[in-house]
Specification:
4 helices, 4 strands, 40% helix
């Protein structure tokens, strides 16, 4: 089974979900990855600082999100059995192509736009809770 976590830019939310899922998942038949709907994002200076602090906050909670952001492709989508939108800013109807998308869920996790570690930690904990439930459901 292939699970794809998606957020807007694949900088924070979907990477946290992917990394944490892969840390706790004991079923080697389930593979998780992540991507963003907007590939190749060139971060502004202010966004670079936020992204760096997001990575530092995640690391404090045991989640290392160091891989470069990846964008979506039809090839990547076709390989998935389950797509999870780890965001509240992507409409589900974008993923209604039944030719190659089997199942889509949305968790409605808000993006952390400000450089606020408390909000980042709150978001990470929301994602951890959702991933724990998903992992239990997939056993």
């Amino acid at each position: 089974m292939n699970v794809l976590f998606i957020c807007k830019h694949n900088i924070f939310r979907s990477k946290v979900a992917e990394t944490y899922f892969n840390q706790i998942n004991k079923n080697k038949n389930i593979k998780a990855s992540s991507a963003g709907i907007i590939p190749g994002l060139k971060l502004l200076k202010s966004q670079e600082k936020v992204a760096k602090n997001q990575a530092l906050t995640a690391k404090k909670l045991g989640i290392s999100i160091i891989r470069n952001p990846r964008g979506l492709s039809v090839k990547l989508l076709k390989k998935q059995d389950l797509i999870i939108l780890v965001s509240d800013d992507i409409p589900m109807k974008v993923f209604n192509n039944k030719d190659y998308i089997k199942k889509v869920m949305q968790w409605k996790i808000p993006d952390v736009l400000k450089n606020n570690p408390k909000n980042m930690e709150k978001t990470i904990k929301m994602i951890i809770q959702k991933v724990n439930k998903l992992n239990n459901d997939l056993k």
